[in-house]
């Protein structure tokens, strides 16, 4: 592709241009689709649509995995026609990404109330039959999706939910209007622009040097423990949230912390999970669990955690009445954070 970057580098007596990488070309294309309604409408002609109903994605089952089917604009128009829906409903769709070949990906919810249709939710079973799939709650399906579909459907659900909840201007009370890509909504009466939001959440794996601290909430599946998590309060830095959450939930003071990685998380309504390692002073490890937030918390050895990482989620009660200790699945950043801690511990215990 003969695309050149606008920033030229001067070498001796002539200008030379660096061709844009596929990644840069793709990000620039997505930027254009968000800014230019006509370009985005054009992209819908050749793009594909992922379908939702009441925020549950349409999925098909294939060998213990879920797959997210895609539909062309033509197929979608035909489907809407068959169910007596206005094709204008497609204007509710949101842009969620594109391929390296610039095939744009959109998501559309056929079950949420729309200004173009009010009775779509009545057709759910018939639509499932027609589409040869089922609308399945993302919470149930997430861990049986491949990483790419999981990430895309999470983004799509968060964006669709945000649009559904921001139909009206909080200042004028008037209906807001989304741009074609769905990257913003505007109130026509006062031009206030609303952008999709997500809540920053820290997730911290506390260690005392040899053990790590894991906790569970009563809402977790039986036997599952995870690292400590908490929403950032307004005005806080990530470091302040970590110190506060660890103090609040287990009564310990963080000595040092280190950023690990981040992940978009669709629950409860679109969060940015910021994962960090933290340490406490070796002598100050007595846990005082805040029972309003947690069911329990405890220190675990390297070997206990390494074994639990290999265990798949299980709800089978053991003979002594307890449930096996297990950790969140691979897709969750808490799993990756805990895995990194185990690997680091393994390396540091190897003879030099
Ligand atoms: N991806 C992962 O690996 C992973 C692992 C653990 C937790 N999480 C996510 O982290 C989130 C936060 O963890 P937590 O429940 O321990 O948080 P938390 O300890 O802050 O407690 C939750 C409480 O915080 C309050 N809160 C403050 N701001 C909020 C907001 N913007 N949205 C909702 N509630 C808000 C509410 O009262 C809520 O009951 C969970 O919703 C969970 O989905 C993700
Ligand atoms: Mg918490």
List the helices and strands and how they pair.
Blueprint: E1 9-11, E2 14-16, H1 22-35, H2 37-46, E3 48-53, E4 56-62, E5 65-67, E6 71-72, H3 73-82, E7 94-98, E8 104-109, H4 124-131, E9 134-135, H5 138-141, H6 147-165, E10 177-178, E11 185-186, E12 193-194, E13 199-207, E14 212-216, E15 228-231, H7 238-250, E16 256-265, E17 271-279, E18 296-300, H8 302-310, H9 333-349
Helix pairs in contact: 1-2, 8-9
CATH class assignment of the largest domain: Alpha Beta
What structural category characterises the helix and strand content? alpha+beta
Indicate the percent of residues in helices: 25-40%
Q: Indicate how many domains the architecture comprises.
A: 2
Which architecture of the largest domain would the CATH scheme give at its second level? Alpha-Beta Complex
- Determine the CATH topology of the largest domain: Nucleoside Triphosphate Pyrophosphohydrolase
* Beta-strand residue percentage: 15-25%
Ranges with pLDDT <50 over ≥5 residues?
1-13
Largest sheet: 7 strands, mixed
Give the terminus-to-terminus CA distance: 51 Å
What is the strand tally?
Answer: 18
Order of helices and strands: EEHHEEEEHEEHEHHEEEEEEHEEEHH
Quaternary form: single chain
Provide mean pLDDT, rounded. 91
Alpha-carbon Rg, integer: 24 Å
What does this protein structure show overall?
The protein is α+β, with helices and mostly antiparallel strands. The chain folds into two domains: 25-194, Nucleoside Triphosphate Pyrophosphohydrolase; 199-311 and 322-349, Nucleoside Triphosphate Pyrophosphohydrolase (Alpha-Beta Complex), CATH 3.90.79.10. The protein has helices at residues 22-35, 37-46, 73-82, 124-131, 138-141, 147-165, 238-250, 302-310, 333-349, and strands at 9-11, 14-16, 48-53, 56-62, 65-67, 71-72, 94-98, 104-109, 134-135, 177-178, 185-186, 193-194, 199-207, 212-216, 228-231, 256-265, 271-279, 296-300. The strands form four sheets. Strands 3, 4, 5, 6, 7, 8 and 9 form a seven-stranded mixed sheet that branches. Strands 13, 14, 15, 16, 17 and 18 form a six-stranded mixed sheet that branches. It starts with 8 loop residues before the first strand and ends with a helix. The chain binds nicotinamide-adenine-dinucleotide (NAD) and magnesium ion. The site of magnesium ion has 4 residues, from strand 15.
């Amino acid at each position: 592709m003969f695309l050149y970057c606008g920033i030229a580098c001067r070498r001796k007596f002539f200008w030379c241009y660096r061709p844009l990488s596929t990644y840069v070309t793709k990000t620039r294309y997505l930027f254009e689709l968000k800014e230019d309604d006509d370009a985005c409408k054009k992209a819908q002609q050749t793009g594909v649509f992922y379908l939702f109903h009441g925020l549950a994605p349409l999925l098909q089952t294939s060998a213990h995995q879920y797959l997210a089917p895609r539909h062309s604009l033509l197929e979608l128009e035909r489907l809407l026609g068959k169910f007596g829906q206005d094709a204008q409903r497609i204007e509710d769709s949101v842009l969620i990404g594109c391929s390296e070949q610039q095939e744009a990906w959109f998501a559309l919810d056929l079950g949420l109330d729309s200004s173009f249709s009010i009775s779509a939710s009545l057709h759910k079973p018939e639509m499932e039959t027609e589409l040869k799939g089922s609308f399945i709650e993302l919470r149930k399906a997430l861990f049986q999706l491949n990483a790419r579909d999981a990430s895309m459907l999470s983004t799509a659900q968060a964006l669709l939910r945000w649009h559904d909840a921001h139909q009206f201007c909080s200042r004028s009370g008037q209906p807001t209007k989304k741009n074609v890509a769905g990257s913003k909504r505007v109130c026509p009466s006062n031009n206030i622009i609303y952008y999709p939001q997500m809540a920053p959440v820290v997730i911290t794996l506390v260690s005392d040097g040899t053990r790590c601290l894991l906790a569970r909430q009563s809402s977790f599946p039986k036997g599952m423990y995870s690292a400590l998590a908490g929403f950032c309060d307004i005005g806080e830095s990530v470091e302040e949230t970590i110190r506060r959450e660890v103090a609040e939930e287990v009564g310990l003071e963080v000595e040092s912390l280190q950023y690990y990685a981040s992940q978009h998380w669709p629950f409860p309504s679109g969060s940015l999970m910021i994962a960090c390692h933290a340490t406490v002073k070796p002598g100050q490890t007595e846990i005082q669990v805040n029972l309003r937030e947690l069911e329990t918390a405890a220190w675990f050895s390297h070997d206990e955690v390494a074994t639990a990482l290999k265990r798949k989620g299980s709800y089978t009660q053991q003979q002594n009445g307890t449930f096996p200790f297990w950790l969140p699945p691979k897709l969750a950043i808490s799993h990756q954070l805990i895995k990194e801690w185990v690997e680091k511990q393994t390396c540091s215990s190897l003879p030099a």
